[in-house]
Amino acid sequence: MSRTRNVFLVGPMGAGKTTIGRRLAPALGLTFYDSDEVIISRTGVDIATIFDIEGEAGFRDRESRVLDELSALDGVVIATGGGAILREENRERLRTRGQVIYLTVPLDLQLRRTRRDNQRPLLQTANPRERLAALQREREPLYRAIADIVIDTGANDSKRLARDLIKRLSATREPVQPQGR
Ligand SMILES: Nc1ncnc2c1ncn2[C@@H]1O[C@H](COP(=O)(O)OP(=O)(O)O)[C@@H](O)[C@H]1O
Ligand SMILES: O=C(O)C1=C[C@@H](OP(=O)(O)O)[C@@H](O)[C@H](O)C1
Ligand SMILES: [Mg+2]
């Protein structure tokens, strides 16, 4: 059973974490944060620039700090970045501080959704398909290990997905019992 009202979205690049989270939060009466967007607004530079200057390790340190801070709040929906689950400390915080939704996406669709993007430094490679497949092989068990809900984003638009998720989230809430007289 969930420890707080918080909802955390995990999954690979292009699964729709940012898009679905933005829809889900107002519908649940919660506040939306995207960890990448928080990092961008705090540093004043984009994610690619952080990777350039500080390397992936520097970015992961920032990501862990932001996730620790935001997940400690109550009443938030957080769209994480695809690699947030790599660190054990992040997995532990997400798992214990809210409900974790793992958004899955078929590789072809993931490729299409991220194709025109130059903001995801890990995809600036000669073969983004192979990169996405390799990342997924490494990360899939980590997403699954902390997921309360797993949902495929391939079949539905984000509006429909948000609606389905709201139903599934309310089904896992503890019912309030009337007092016996
Ligand atoms: N369910 C969906 N149906 C169609 N397009 C989607 C869906 N979810 C996301 N997208 C599109 O895919 C792209 C990547 O989505 P985004 O929310 O940035 O993914 P993530 O944060 O998981 O990397 C965006 O252009 C978004 O509009
Ligand atoms: O998968 C990853 O390691 C990353 C995913 C990105 O976020 P999205 O999953 O929202 O694209 C962003 O955090 C960064 O480019 C690294
Ligand atoms: Mg995102």
TrEMBL record:
Pfam families found in the cross-reference section: SKI (PF01202)
Keyword field contains NADP: no
Recorded coiled-coil stretches: none
Annotated positions binding Mg(2+): 18
Metabolic or biological pathway: Metabolic intermediate biosynthesis; chorismate biosynthesis; chorismate from D-erythrose 4-phosphate and phosphoenolpyruvate: step 5/7
Binding site for ATP: 14-19, 120
Subcellular localization, as worded in the UniProt entry: Cytoplasm
Single GO molecular function: shikimate kinase activity
EC number assigned by the record: 2.7.1.71
UniProt entry keywords in alphabetical sequence: Amino-acid biosynthesis, Aromatic amino acid biosynthesis, ATP-binding, Cytoplasm, Kinase, Magnesium, Metal-binding, Nucleotide-binding, Transferase
CDD domains cross-referenced by the UniProt entry: SK
Assembly description: Monomer.
NCBIfam families per the UniProt record, alphabetical: PRK05057.1 (NF003456)
Name of the protein: Shikimate kinase
Source organism: Acidihalobacter aeolianus
Phylogenetic placement of the source organism: Bacteria, Pseudomonadati, Pseudomonadota, Gammaproteobacteria, Chromatiales
